[in-house]
Every structure is written in structure tokens, then in C-alpha cells.
């Protein structure tokens, strides 16, 4: 049920799992660009949000959004 889903802002502890998921599920067959350091840098940016689905310590899904100027970009 969708009401049971926990969506939260990611923490630096989530970065390695987000990086692994990006490599295995999104960047498969491409050069691996979204490594742990790049994800942590995105978390530190004031114009960017990194959100995850899952309890603390568990990541089922993620999204990285940037908000330059008057638009939003799913990274």
C-alpha cells in the first residue's frame, strides 16, 4: 500500500547504497558517474535534494533533483 511508504531526505550514510543502485539499475552499460562522492556533494548543495524511499538505513528507491533558477531537473 502506498500509505506505508516512507520518503525521506537521504543522509551521507545512504550515499554508498544510492551509488550502488545507480550503477546497477540506471547506469548499467554506461560509465559509472554517480559514485558515493558525487552523491554526497549533491546532498551538500543548497539547490539540490536527494530523497530516498525506505526506513533509516534502508534504500528501496531514490531521486536526485536540482533546482537551478526557475526549473527543476531530475538528475
List the helices and strands and how they pair.
Layout: E1 7-9, H1 15-26, H2 36-44, E2 48-53, E3 61-66, E4 73-74
Task: Summarize this entry quickly.
The protein has 75 residues and is α+β, with helices and mostly antiparallel strands.
Descriptive account of the structure:
The chain has helices at residues 15-26, 36-44; strands at 7-9, 48-53, 61-66, 73-74. By secondary structure, the chain is α+β, with helices and mostly antiparallel strands. Helix 1 (15-26) crosses helix 2.
Identify the overall geometry. globular
Sheet with the most strands?
A: 4 strands, antiparallel
Percent strand: 15-25%
Structural class: alpha+beta
Which sequence of strands runs across the widest sheet? 1-2-3-4
Counting H and I runs of at least 4 residues, what is the number of helices? 2
Distance between the termini: 27 Å
Report the helical percentage: 25-40%
Radius of gyration: 13 Å
- In round numbers, the mean pLDDT is 92
State the total count of DSSP E strands: 4
Low-confidence stretches: none
- Tell me the series of helices and strands, N- to C-terminal: EHHEEE
